[in-house]
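#data-curation
PF: Archiving a pair of folding outputs for the training set. Convention for this channel: one message per protein, sequence first, structure tokens after, nothing in between. First:
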Amino acid sequence: MTDAFIVSEPVTAEPPRISINYRPKPGLGALVLKNIFLNFVTLFIYSFWAKTNVRKHIWSCVHIMDEPLEYTGRGIELALGFLIVIGFFLLPLVALQTAFQIFAVNEFIIFGVNLLILIVFTFLTGVAIYRARRYRLSRTLWRGIRGTLIGSAFTYGAVRFGFLLLQSASAMWTHPVAQVTLFSILTGDMRFGNRPFKFQGNSGPLYGPFAIFWFGTLVAIILIIIGIVVTASTGVFDGLIDVTGEEDIDVMAGVIATAALIAVIFLLAIPYIILRAFYTAAEISYLARGTRYEDVTFAMNATTGSLVKLVFLNGIIMLFTLGLAAPFVQQNLIRYLCERLSASGELDLASIQQSQAEMDQTGEGLAEVFDVDVF
């Protein structure tokens, strides 16, 4: 009798999943009403503490492996950061610009000063984004361990400024390169405790989705222009003007022009939002796949439909509450990320030690002044 040997394939166990959940809790609505009232009676001085309280609420709803995040920032830190930037940067810059406007007789000098100020502001916007994220990470705790960014905000600002110039010169075709490069800088500088995040990837896989977004938007613009020209050639607008009487021609022409502009914006916004969501879904999914923390890998299940729904819902909230319900928009964004982001791999919690990076003593002053990347 012949013995039969069955050679089985080795079974590779799937890496353990790391749960990431958003668990909403009551109180955000009451917090929003409280913030609205106190901002009103304090002439928005309370806004720094309002923002801090919203962050504390939303952070505490994010659970990783059933442990909530904790936000430890303080309103006074944000207020001091804002005042320092106003006093030592913005006011002197405004005074300098005003002086040149009053005393400079050469228009080229005035133009040069204004251009220089625009360049400085654009560069510092990138610096503000980096510093704001470093501040938030340093005030975010999970299991008592905080995060941070250890790189240079000025380096990030310079790279971002350079890519803005390149995108303008290339009709935005360097956008995927810019996004991957800037994300790589932020991720490479990011630490949780004493351990680094890493990103490995390039912009190549993003150019297919970007081409669809770019050419799709171009086609939408061309079709809308053709539609306007064809409609105008039928004489519809002339007929509307004729029935109003000669004295109302200018008024009616203005109304028609305004209505046409609104219609163009609306018609262009729909395909643009869909195409932009298509590209953004591909971009954030790709960036997530290339990110690692120790042996933990990430994946983002972002889709065009889900992003369009998110944009529409948040737009409705902002429109009908005049921006007063912005914390609910922020909550929707964080909940979307938590529901769509997955992580898997072995995480050796015992080996992660507290970050020794120096913490900023003030908050997001530049980001507050420039109104960028402030959550």
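PF: Second:
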Amino acid sequence: MVQYVFGCLVLLSIFGCNINTQTFATNVDFTPPQYISHDFSDANTLQILYSEEIMLTSELMVDPDIGVIPQATENLVELSFSEKPRAGNKYIVSLEVTDSLGNRNRLHIPFFGINERLPRLIISEFSPEGSKNNPDRIELYVLSGGIMSGIAFYLSHPLENDPDYIFPDIEVKAGEFIIIHAKSQNIPGETPEIDNKSVASSKGTHDSAWDVWLPESPGLSNTTGSIIITEYPRGPIIDAVSYTVKTLDEAHRYLGYGRKGDLELLEYLVHKEHWQKQETPIGPHLAIFSELSTSTRSINRYSDRDKNYVDSNSASDWYIVPNRSSSFGERNNPDVYAP
């Protein structure tokens, strides 16, 4: 009995409820409102969804401070910012909500400003078997113009990791190429290009393309990897590819992959409809088979008869070019490598 009363006193101190131990109601709701999700309704308004009807307390802050006008309606908190969040910049909103019984939930939610002028992009070429003279690179092709501000680039799961790169304010036009250098050579000329395509001059650059470098210089995996670009960190996927040298092994716990994370990332891309589930099970046989790629035999996206890049979100969109036929910064070489 003493233990039971002590438990009631703990609940009282946490939730601020008046409890009579002789008439304690077992069906009293002590569960705080549960956070469900958050997203922008427009570039200046963030909406936060809860599991039940809530009220805002006075504890609300945005860091960095951009001014905020809050409103709570039923189970939705709407935050309208006095200053529009800058695309690609990280902010943290701290707020506390309470339900009708006084149960409280305090959260710290990170979010990023969104880009209202997103270009349409497609991954058009990549080289996971780089060398000193031909480093690891990824090429993006601009389908329609816009500004790259805040677009996130990943070589890993976008919901579990920080981006490998967040693009700065590069104004791009339809028909242009962007070369992402995944492995730095630490030599002069590795200058990221923001407003001039002729600044960079190191190996693997192109005067007609925008050249940028991944800050941590991770390189591409030469066995299994994914390349993902999103509208903003942890945002909607713009384009993605998956490649591997592994083959399907249904007796293996990861179906032939060396790591559980490789399988989970492919499953995620299939779930998001950015890679086709042509057959079951989901496994390495659905990814681009990259074993024959070398530092000069890059992996390229096919074009149709009208020279438009083919995009069915599957391995069949891709081929490997012959020796010394990589074409970063230009239209893909149409020749296919024959072993």
